[in-house]
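Entry 12.
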Amino acid sequence: MKFATFDESGTLMGRYDSSIHSVIPESAIELDEAVFQATRADTDGVWKRVDGEIVKVALPDVSSNNAAAFATERFARETSGITVENLSIETTRDSQALIASTGLSAILDAEYRCNFKTLDGFVHINATQILAIAKAVRAHVQACFDRELELLNALESGTYTDEMLKDGWPDTSSTE
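Predicted 3D structure (tokens):
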């Protein structure tokens, strides 16, 4: 079974698959397979729970509110996931927090090992691998925020064009 959690505004925060996750938050709601897969792949909108339905909300028209469009695009890119050492890593806000805490454990104990959940299932990894994942996720998230700032600076300087919104974001397909 597939599940998802949403924040108080209805924005998707985390995805869970009962075949690979032993703990699913009580607040999670069940998703059908098609919606679950769609929420993993789409970066041209933001997934929200609206009136009990899971829907993709289109990014705002950049001509009407650039700053909001930049933030929405950054969030979609930030939470779209990355690949680290051939492992598909989820980068939702929930996942970022869990990865950061696992990274702290690896810093505190160089011998630390754990069963780590990827988008493809569990893998057993060591402290070095944990830190590589944590660093890659942090770099990806920071690159997304950096791109948002670049767009804001371009808007302020008068050099922004609508084509810039889809370009210049970090590559999520392979981070090594």
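Annotation: The chain has a mean pLDDT of 88. Residues 6 and 12 are 4 Å apart (CA to CA).
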